[in-house]
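Why should sequence recovery work at all? Because a backbone constrains its sequence more than one might expect. Tight turns favour small or flexible residues, buried strands favour hydrophobic ones, and helices have their own preferences. The token representation captures these environments compactly. In the example below, the structure is given first.
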């Protein structure tokens, strides 16, 4: 039992998900980010001409100081430098990236990731949306992942969001993950999002939104994005366990072979054989699985691959009991075995003589005899050996005879005095009449005998034995 449990544990460790990963989309913004359309009207976004902030793509990380006139009053502002990209960003530390920039900062020749927070005086509530302008097909992929690097200081009313569309950008859905709002992150960090809705789509797109509502507490940087990847993983289906058996009904002590018929290209197999002398196997097609005791037994197959596993348990093997050894008796030259079996196979000196449906065999010579019987289930057993060592002669060679045959009432025996013993047996080998020396009758009354087959065994003065089959009729 411990060995089986250990095998199950090892199998479960081996059966990890098989994934083939493909990159379906990537944008590093080194060529300007042409796969994104900046400042779209989606989700209430304003365009660059009307908004006081906007999405741009460049590789500017340097801040600076500038002046903004708000409500007729000049205001000086200072924008900090953006953190350079970490080693995980391809081509870093200062490659192009997509980010928010304010008109006021650009007027002061500052083009890094920063924003003018809405305060109700110099600017009201606005949001800015940038979206993929091409569809990505994720059909055939079980797992689809969006990954990107981001930063966003912002505040409670100034934060970034991620959206997805599965209808070519007509409708957008907030990617409800944690975090939902991208905020309070002044340094670069990588985000990975996997949602079931991303998989199996023909028109998948992603977009980024920066929300800039009125606040009096917000900090740079604004929402910055780099290295946008969409990866699809193909998750192979686990196998479906199935098997065949060479013989589903056997006799005790018999053996069978099993054939794996599982689909889905399994690479590992664990067989559990209830009641068999071999308790389990890990080969694909186990052979010579033997059963010693009668009963109905289940077989379990766990077929596994890197994609997973499937378990099938069914009542597969019926083990039939072998019949009891037949009783073999002899009456003269006739051997008789227990009746009721389908076939009888007779042997003399371990040499096959004949196989038939008869439970009798007339011997023609001395030797050591036994019979093997087979029942309706095909199960067999053999009798013990019986030795025939006698002179066999035909009663009809005497000067007398036995008649009539078949007989109805009276059986006549012609005897010249050579017969010294006469015995009559029924078909089961029971003695029903016996006449010892000096009492041999000339007429035997069979009127009270049941209809059937009887055997007369006669011994002469030289100890020779003869036999005769008699049929009794009414």
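From this structural description, the recovered sequence reads:
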């Amino acid at each position: 039992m411990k060995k089986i449990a250990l095998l199950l544990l090892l199998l479960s460790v081996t059966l990890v998900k098989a994934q083939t990963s493909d990159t379906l989309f990537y944008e590093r913004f080194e060529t300007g980010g042409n796969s994104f359309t900046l400042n779209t009207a989606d989700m209430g976004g304003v365009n660059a001409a009307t908004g006081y902030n906007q999405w741009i793509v460049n590789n500017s990380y340097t801040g600076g100081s500038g002046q903004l006139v708000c409500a007729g009053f000049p205001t000086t502002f200072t924008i900090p430098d953006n953190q350079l990209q970490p080693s995980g960003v391809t081509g870093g530390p200062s490659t192009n990236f997509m980010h928010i920039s304010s008109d006021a900062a650009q007027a002061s020749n500052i083009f890094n990731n920063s924003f003018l927070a809405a305060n109700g005086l110099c600017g009201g509530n606005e949001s800015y949306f940038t979206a993929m302008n091409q569809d990505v097909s994720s059909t055939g992929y079980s797992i689809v992942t969006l990954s990107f690097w981001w930063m966003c200081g912002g505040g409670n009313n100034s934060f970034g969001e991620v959206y997805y569309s599965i209808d070519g950008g007509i409708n957008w859905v907030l990617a409800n993950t944690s975090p939902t709002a991208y905020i309070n992150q002044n340094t670069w960090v990588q985000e990975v999002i996997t949602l079931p809705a991303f998989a199996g789509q023909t028109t998948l797109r992603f977009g980024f939104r920066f929300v800039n509502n009125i606040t009096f507490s917000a900090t740079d940087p604004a929402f910055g994005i780099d290295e946008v990847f969409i990866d699809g993983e193909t998750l192979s289906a686990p196998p479906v366990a199935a098997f065949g058996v060479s013989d589903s009904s056997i006799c005790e002590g018999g053996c069978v072979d099993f054939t794996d018929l599982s689909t889905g290209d399994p690479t590992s197999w664990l067989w559990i054989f209830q009641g068999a002398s071999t308790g389990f196997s890990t080969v694909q097609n186990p052979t010579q699985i033997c059963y010693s005791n009668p009963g109905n037994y289940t077989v379990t197959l766990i077929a596994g691959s890197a994609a997973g596993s499937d378990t099938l348990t069914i009542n597969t093997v019926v083990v039939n009991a072998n019949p009891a050894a037949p009783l073999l008796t002899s009456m003269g030259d006739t051997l008789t075995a227990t009746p009721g079996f389908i076939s009888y196979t007779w042997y003399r000196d371990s040499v096959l003589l004949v196989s038939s449906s008869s439970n009798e065999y007339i011997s023609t010579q001395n030797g050591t005899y036994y019979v093997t019987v087979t029942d309706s289930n095909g199960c067999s057993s053999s009798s013990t050996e019986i030795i025939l060592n006698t002179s066999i002669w035909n009663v009809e060679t005497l000067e007398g005879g036995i008649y009539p045959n078949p007989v109805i009432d009276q059986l006549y025996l012609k005897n010249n005095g050579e017969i010294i013993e006469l015995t009559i047996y029924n078909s089961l080998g029971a003695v029903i009449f016996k006449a010892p020396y000096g009492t041999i009758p000339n007429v035997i009354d069979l009127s009270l005998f049941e209809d059937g087959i009887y055997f007369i065994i006669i011994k002469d003065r030289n100890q020779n034995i003869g036999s005769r089959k008699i049929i009794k009729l009414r």
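A few observations help interpret the result. Residues 1-18 have pLDDT under 50 and may be disordered.
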